Amino acid sequence: MIGFLGAMITIGFIVYLVLAIRSRKKGSPKAKQQFRIMWILLGGVILLTIIDPNKGQTARITKPEQAATTHEVAEAEPAQDATSTNAGQLSELNDDQQATSSTTEIASDPAKSTEGKENIYVETKQTLDKEAVLTYAGMLRGSPFIKDVNVGKNDISIAYFSSFKQYKAANPQSQATQSIYDDYFSTGDIIKKILMEESTRLLKEFPAANEIKMTVPFNGETYSIDLKEDEAKKFYGGVDFDTLKTSDPSDGNSQWRVQISDKYFNDADRKRFVDEFLKVN
User: Fold this and answer.
1) Which element (helix H / strand E) includes 190?
2) Please, which residues bridge with residue 222 across strands?
3) For the segment 141-170, what is each residue's pLDDT rounded down to a tens digit?
4) What residues contact residue 109 under an 8 Å CB cut-off, 6+ apart?
5) Ordered DSSP codes for 196-209
C-alpha cells in the first residue's frame, strides 16, 4: 500500500514540476501555486521513504525460501572426484585465501581428504632473503675463506677459495698466513664438518631454501655437496626443518639440538653423510 501511494505522489510531483516550469516560462500567475503543490508532494515522497526505508532494496535481498532451496541443493549434490574438486576449488580461491595458503599451508601433498571433506593444501615456498643469507654466511665455519655466496629463489650456493694464494689476492689486507690457512683446513675433519653441519644449519635457518650447494677446495682436491631438503629430511630421520628455527632467545634452538645437532653431529653419522652426499674431484 505504501509503495502504491508513494508511486502516485511521485507521479504527481513530476506532473506539477513540469506544469510549474511551463507556467513560469509563460509568466502565468499559476506558477507560484503549482510550485507550492510540487514542494508539498516532494515532502510526501520524502516522508514515505522514511516510513518505508527498505523500499527499492527488495531486489537485492534473497528470499528465505530461495536461500533454503539453494542450501538443500548444495548438500544434495554428490561428491566429485578428487581431481575435478581440487581444480575447481583452486580456481575459486580469492586473493586473501591464496595469500593465506602461501604463508601458512605448506604441505607435501597437493590435496588431502579428511572425513569425506576435501581440503586443498597448496605447496609453496617463500623466496629467500638474499641479504639475510649473506649476513648469516659470515657466521659459518671458515667464513673468512668463503669466496662466493650465490642466493637463488630457493637455493644457496657457497664456494670457498681454491687456495690461500687466491684468498690473499682477494684480501691483501688480511693478516692470515699460509700456515694458518693450511692448519685450519687440515685439522680434524673440518672440511667434512663444514659440508655436513653448515649446509644443515642453512636449511634450518632459511625455511625457504630447498637446496644447499657447498664447495671447499683444498690441496688440489675439491670437496662438494649438493644437499636437497627432501634428501636431508630423510637422512635426519624425517625431521621437518621448517619447525626448527626460533626467534625466542629463551628457547635457544632446543629442538635443533634434540632433533639434529646432539643426535647426528658425531663421527659415525658424519661418515654416513660423507658416504651419501660428498663428492671429491
Assistant:
1) helix 190-193
2) 217
3) 999 999 999 999 999 999 999 999 999 999
4) 121
5) IIIHHHHHHH-TT-
| Cell numbers placing 169 | 689476492
Contact 181, 192 (CB under 8 A): no
What span, in angstroms and rounded, lies between the C-alpha atoms of 278 and 191? 11
Q: What is the residue whose three cell numbers read 538443500?
A: 72
Task: Write the pLDDT tens digit of every residue in 25-49.
Answer: 777 777 667 667 777 777 766 766 6
Give the neighbor-by-neighbor strand order of the sheet with 155-160.
146-151, 155-160, 211-218, 221-228, 279-280
Query: What is the predicted pLDDT for the residue at 37?
Result: 77
227 DSSP β-pair partners? 212
Alpha carbon distance 155, 34 (integer Å): 82
pLDDT band at 56 (very low <50, low <70, confident <90, very high): very low
Vertex 146, ends 141 and 149: CA angle to 5°?
110
pTM for the predicted model, two decimal places: 0.56
